[in-house]
Design brief:
Layout: H1 13-34, H2 38-61, H3 67-89, H4 94-117, H5 128-146, H6 152-183, H7 189-218, H8 234-247, H9 255-281, E1 283-284, E2 294-295, E3 299-300, H10 301-327, H11 331-363, H12 371-379, H13 382-388, E4 393-394
Antiparallel strand pairs: 1-4, 2-3
């Protein structure tokens, strides 16, 4: 894949409009959650939707379509959609299902897009059903944000329509991309094993680094793991896989290109991880509100710069070293190790999720309603969960 990045592309008119859409996101959340103004929120969402149409029109009309724009535009769309759903979560219970579908959809889209571009000479633009899905989501969210007294049955119907649109779009994209991938070189087992190894290594190293930093900073050892059993910090594993997948095509690129790409990818990934944890579990694992130039305390300039530097180190040092280490492991042994880890990780992640959700229910005073919840209360009581997630704080404890 030959991705073309030029400095001037970052400052083209369509991309500047996309930046504006990103800037509008915290104002949308502020208008609805802090000001409680449905009208102001709807105006901001409508403005965001208008800029989405406008940047595409300008890019096509004046031949300003760029690879960075093809990446930036959908990122702005998805973050805006997530923000709108976040605003409506407290009012409509069904919106949580829509948000989960959105997260699963975008993870699938990201993975298949990376696999597709591996065999393509360019980054492909959105297809018509993707654009239709975006239009439906904007329309539904705009209605729900503006008409605050809409009947619950009608609101739930609109939410179901948006869920259906996302599912249909995902299936159609899946079919399209799988066909394109099949026409190219298939991802072999060695590549798949490599990504699993990188995920595992980064999870463990991240856990060790966080624990050591806590010891140096506070003088005591405290749990920094993401799951109830394994010594894993999942955010680091996801970051390692994401950096490898994105930067593997830029090994010979100039340092500034690697820095900018890592800066953007790391910032977006960190923001999404923080927002996802807050919405699903009602907690936060990090907060940058005390640092300058932060966005909702989820990301800040200092750590975004760190992502950029890390990307350079990743491409020039860490990735080549990791490739050499993984190459020493026999394929048959890799098969056993990789699938054993996947089985354990799925079990650990699933158990951790339900244990965390049940922990939140206990905080609200809800009694167990079935045998599973009784089991969770017995084996993962509040004391144990506090020790596992010692660094996690409820959203209400954070001032932003």
């Amino acid at each position: 894949m030959n991705i073309k990045l030029k400095i001037k592309d970052f400052f083209s008119v369509p991309n500047l409009i996309s930046y504006l859409r990103l800037i509008l996101i915290p104002f949308i959340v502020w208008a609805y959650c802090e000001k409680g103004s449905g009208l102001l929120t709807a105006i901001l969402v409508a403005l965001s939707g208008f800029t989405d149409v406008l940047d595409g029109k300008i890019a096509r009309r004046f031949n300003m379509v760029t690879d960075i724009g093809k990446v930036l535009d959908p990122i702005a769309d998805k973050l805006t959609q997530a923000a709108m759903m976040y605003c409506l979560l407290t009012k409509y219970e069904l919106m949580l299902s829509a948000f989960i579908v959105l997260i699963v959809k975008e993870i699938f889209m990201a993975v298949t897009a990376i696999m597709e571009t591996k065999y393509s000479a360019k980054i492909n633009s959105a297809l018509w059903y993707g654009k239709a899905c975006t239009a439906i989501l904007y329309a539904v969210m705009l209605i729900l944000l503006f008409f605050t007294n809409i009947p619950l049955w009608l609101a739930n119907t609109l939410i179901v329509i948006s869920i259906a649109a996302m599912l249909i779009s995902t299936v159609l994209y899946g079919i399209h991309r799988i066909r394109r991938i099949k026409n190219g070189e298939k991802m072999n087992k060695k590549t798949f094993y490599k990504y699993v190894y990188i995920f595992l290594i980064c999870c463990v190293v991240g856990f060790a680094v966080e624990t050591l930093w806590c010891l140096i900073k506070n003088g005591y050892i405290e749990s920094r793991k993401s799951l109830v059993y394994g010594p894993l910090s999942v955010a680091y594993g996801m970051g390692g896989v994401l950096l490898t997948a994105v930067l593997s095509k830029f090994k010979s690129s100039s340092l500034w290109k690697i820095f900018l790409i890592s800066f953007a990818v790391g910032t977006v990934a960190e923001y999404i991880c923080s927002l996802g944890q807050e919405i699903v579990f009602g907690s936060v694992a990090w907060d940058y509100s005390h640092l300058p130039l932060n966005i909702n305390g989820r990301v800040c300039l200092l750590y975004s710069l760190f992502w950029g530097v890390l990307g350079i180190a990743w491409v020039k040092l860490i990735m080549p070293l990791t490739d050499k280490l993984i190459s020493f492991v026999p394929m048959k042994l890799s098969c056993v190790l990789v699938w054993a880890f996947i089985a354990f990780f799925v079990f650990d992640a699933g158990l951790s999720a339900v244990a965390a959700l049940r922990w939140n229910e206990r905080k609200e005073g809800l009694e167990p309603s079935n045998r599973i919840e009784v089991f969770l209360d017995e084996h993962f009581p509040d004391e144990r969960m506090k020790k596992i997630y010692a660094n996690s704080r409820d959203v209400d404890e954070i001032e932003r």
